[in-house]
Amino acid sequence: MRYLRLPAVEPPLHALPALVFVHGLMGYSFSWRHNLEFFAQHRDVYAIDLLGVGHSDRPAPGSVDYGMGAAASRLTDFLRSLGQSHIDLVGTSHGGAVAMLAASQDRASSTPLIRSLVLVAPANPFMTNARLRIALFRTSFGRMLLRNLAARSRLLRRKSVGRMYAHAARITEETRSGYDVNLADRRSYEYALEVVRTWREDMQKLQAALASIADIPTLLLWGERDQAVSCKSGLLLQKVFSNAQYVVLPDVGHLPYEEAPEEFNRIVLRFLES
């Protein structure tokens, strides 16, 4: 697993927890390009590429378990390799689900590391708006569509990125070329199909694990115009936690850390400092 590390520019007298960012299904560490330096002013910051996507190794489908539980285990192993005493974990979309499962695994340890969670439109058991989409890509037709068309079609790649934003005019060419690291690589779709293959079962596991992390201070952050993970599911997810803040950014889509980075950074920093 490849990762980026930005050491604190001005370490405080009393060390702050490291901050670790986990991207969404077809994202990678590039997704956090507007956020990493901001948070690295006073703390160590890390952004990973999950195994199978981005600039990490891409083992062939069938040779590695890409389910959320296995991804969470790899994330937990990574967190423990850092030598930190406390960690604040930020996860978005599919990475948000992986972060919650990792927190559950971490809580089972005698020395848990994760101090707080920032979940940005995380995939969750209450996101009913995604069921048809997930069901499509579990069919042979849906799998064929992704394998044979998506990576080859520049138009489809542009549409898939545009769907993540509330306003396509906010998408730069840097953004499009950055995401093409995944979207133009057929192996990324094989990875995504492996994730989707066990999605239903993984969501059941996540729902069962939520009680174990209910007391972790959590920020739930959504864009009001999110088409991928309904912000209404965040209200149901909030009820699981005993200490959760729920914030919705108006006129923003699925990627608030990209579409409204200054506001995103300000909200997350305020949460972490509290």
Biggest beta-sheet profile: 7 strands, mixed
In what range is the share of β-strand residues? Answer: 5-15%
Tally of helical segments: 12
Give the overall pLDDT as a whole number: 92
Q: State the end-to-end CA separation.
A: 32 Å
CATH-wise, what's the superfamily? Alpha/Beta hydrolase fold, catalytic domain
Number of domains: 1
CATH class: Alpha Beta
SSE sequence, one letter per element: EEHEHEHEHHHHHHEHEHH
CATH architecture: 3-Layer(aba) Sandwich
**Spatial shape:** globular
Q: What is the helix fraction of residues, given as a range?
A: 40-55%
User: In CATH terms, what is the fold-level topology?
Assistant: Rossmann fold
List the uncertain runs.
none
Strands in their spatial order, largest beta sheet: 1-3-2-4-5-6-7
| Helix/strand structural class | alpha/beta
Give the total of beta strands: 7
Give the SSE map:
Elements: E1 3-6, E2 18-22, H1 36-39, E3 45-48, H2 68-81, E4 87-92, H3 94-107, E5 114-120, H4 131-136, H5 140-150, H6 154-162, H7 173-183, H8 186-197, H9 199-209, E6 218-223, H10 232-238, E7 244-249, H11 256-259, H12 261-273
